[in-house]
Specification:
Length: 192
């Protein structure tokens, strides 16, 4: 859920200034290319999270993949936070970068966020570029645009964290379908 909200927010902001933006774009299937390292994603159904044409340079596709991690997890406690961001970015690059460079002829940027609201170096660079594109398109000051973007992403991560802690407020009608139908009919009978 956290992943999808951040992906959707990034795609929505890209659509404000770029014409060709796609969420969950399928990557072209491999036709005999050898990827480095061997652990790279070679599946035919492989997808990135966002594709934005013209993000880094004109007429070139930029691919982005989102990862959100919990920095207080046991496996991350012994490492400095900066190193955790860097290792997750490297992991994402091992999976996607060579395939996107060779087959898609595009660029790849991992968007790594912590559930506390922080972001990795490459996500920070991507947000700066996005703020630059938005501010030059709208005529607003770069500092205001960047502040708004950082705020929107922080609130998005915060909403997801709160939802993970307390759960959803929606009625779970799909958990017990026969009981929820009975409840709905009972409520409808009271209202008549």
């Amino acid at each position: 859920m956290r992943h999808n909200d951040v992906r959707d927010l990034f795609g929505e902001e890209c659509k404000k200034v770029l014409n060709d933006v796609q969420l969950e774009p399928p990557l072209q299937p491999l036709t005999g290319e050898r990827l480095y390292p061997a652990s790279a994603n070679s599946a035919d159904e492989a997808r990135a999270d966002v594709r934005a044409k013209g993000f880094w340079c004109r007429q070139q596709n930029a691919f982005f993949d989102v990862r959100i991690f919990y920095p207080h997890a046991q496996c991350y406690r012994s490492q400095p936070l900066k190193k955790v961001y860097s290792s997750i970015e490297k992991e994402k690059k091992r999976h996607y970068c060579d395939r996107i460079l060779q087959v898609e002829h595009g660029t790849f940027t991992p968007l790594v966020f912590s559930s506390n609201g922080g972001m990795g170096k490459e996500a920070s660079c991507a947000l700066k570029q996005l703020a630059n594109l938005i501010s030059s398109s709208s005529g607003e000051a770069y500092s205001q645009t960047m502040g708004l973007l950082r705020c929107r992403f922080a609130f998005c991560l915060m909403r997801c964290a709160v939802t993970c802690l307390r759960g959803s407020r929606r009625l779970r009608s799909n958990v017990f379908p026969e009981e929820s139908t009975t409840l709905i009919n009972w409520v409808a009978g009271i209202q008549e």
